[in-house]
Amino acid sequence: MPNGGHSTTTIARPKDATAARTRPVDRPEDDTLLGDFTRPIAKDKQLVRGRGKRLFVGLGALVVVAAIVAALFVLPVQAWLRQEDDIARKEQIAEALESENASMTREIEQLQTPEGIEEAAREVIGYVQRGEIRLTVLPGTEAPTVLPSGWPYDQMAQVVAVRSAEAASEAESASTP
To answer: What is the DSSP letter of 142?
Structure first.
């Protein structure tokens, strides 16, 4: 055991196959992977012959790649942005519904008390208790701001204009010390 306890075999190894060659192997000068794309291909091994056909096939491949990129990246991004807009809109609707729900809950709680029931009856159906008198005050109608032309209205319009100017000047003099 001269090798530190390990035994070695005495089987003869085969000779190197490349060392026995007498003629050198035909190898291209550039031994790179790019050489496969830059070296000309023999005409009998070309899949597509003719420069125009190759250009057409190249453009077709480019269109296919662009379609795949659009399907994998552009369309999902558009869908994602559209979904974000939908989510924002639905969150606003949810907030509005929650506030409406809260006001309805307060109204329900108010209507569960005797005072709330009485107040609702007064507002909705005009309920009055014994001894009370119901008075309904209607809102007043507004007069037209432009008076029609004619004998009494022309003089009235002048009076209104003069008095409005007087009121404005009095208000202005009262505000300045």
So the answer is: P
